[in-house]
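User: Can you help me understand a structure? I only have the sequence.
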Amino acid sequence: MKEFNITGICIPEKHYMVDISDKIERITSELVDKGKYFTLNRARQYGKTTTLNLLSRNLRQNALVISLSFEGADDYFRSMQHFVRGISLDIADILETERAADELVQVWRAPVDEELPLRQLSKRITALCNGVDRDVVLMIDEVDKSSDNQIFLSFLGMLRDKYLKREQGRELTFRSVILAGVYDIRNMKLKLRDEEEHKYNSPWNIAVPFDMDMSFATEGIVAMLEEYEAEHGTGMALWDIADEISYYTSGYPFLVSYICMKLDRQNTWSVEAVRYVVRDMLKENNTLFDDVIKNVRNHKAFAKLTENIILLGAPVPFDIHNPEIYLGVMFGIYADKNDKVAVSNVIFETLILNYFTTIRLNTALLVSDYSVKEQYIQEGKLNMEHILRQFSSFLYSEYRDEDALFIEQQGRLLFLCFLRPVINGTGHYAVDPQTRQNDRMDIQVFYGGEEYVIELKVWRGIQYEKKGYDQLCDYLDARGLKKGYLLSFCGNHIKPREDSVFEYRGHEICEVIAAYRADR
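Assistant: Let's start by predicting it. Here is the structure, written out as tokens:
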């Protein structure tokens, strides 16, 4: 029986997988068959190796595929002789497996010329392409493991030279070359130290852009779950669960498989179970989450931009030529949504928010009496109205001397810092990416099987309140909820009106106004 897999290559015969055969066919017909060279650069654990494996299977029907990886190949880059020797032995092994002619195998096993090893490698490639009766395709995975190495750049230069000669009809070489890694080899500077940037230029300008969307659509997730359901008969609501998985992951392959793997192990398939799995995932340490936080922590300008987008709702135009935006896309953290920069999925956004709340948690919040969490929880459910009122009191007592601009910019983060210790370990929150604006943010809180929606707004006056009520009710309708909460940050000297609970458009709304300068 198949299983869900999150490590290494996913094999269709062994693992439940989203079917990407249509994408494999497109890559084959639009790129490989036309003799294109390209780089499949995607974020960590985005299915690059699995895609290469499926592509290799497809191409082997008509081509000889030389599939290599630079993972664990550090010794190859000690010198050009080591590199050519290592590559040659790898290709010789593949040729033996493919039952190529003995004389061709021996060409690749022969000693390496110490004076002109790269020229010798070029001649061996020509001999290989002359010695077989089909096209030869080269694939190299994990190329960015050594992409800041001059030996690797020289190798790319040799491939480029052979490609140009092929186009001129002067030489036989690979039909297509496919490099896979996180970093786009066409832009080498991203991997080089500042003091060395001027020394290198990427020779990979012959490569065509690879802009195919490799994320999983909801329909693909449904098809995968249908296969699982046919074997297990759980009775799951396929589309509801797939929609919830899509909501949290935006189709990020690793996250989709990880959620499904955990649901399978728990043998519980429901929308609520997806939320519990996400809650538990956010408390875990895994290599993907480590990479996300490391990338935020190690790039100050990128971190600042991310904070502005998440916490301030800054409407940053999507421009891939902006270095920080380019980094975010390459890391899988940013996405283009309606021509604006947004965090690519809810899980990443919540993970980064948790990181920001951890490093920004102020002393007053740390010493708050969370030992009496019972005041916020009744019969296993959150008393959200009490939480909002207590936060309003906290904001007044600790920040009444701050100016309005500070609260407008930091109020959301302060609220999340206040909320997190209350729900930590039992619940979790998510920020809806569709509602974040300069003056508005909707937060979903999941706790004890219940969902709570809180709209955070900056107070702009009485005339804007009806719009806020309508926005909250629209969102409650979309989530199928009857009760919602509205928290307004107000820098007025006098609190405009008292907190209240009232009916509006068939919904119960609890409104709390955090007027932190109310008695001035």
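Now, to help you interpret it: The chain is about 45% helix and 15% strand. Residues 21-199 form a domain with the Rossmann fold fold (CATH 3.40.50). Let me know which part you'd like to focus on.
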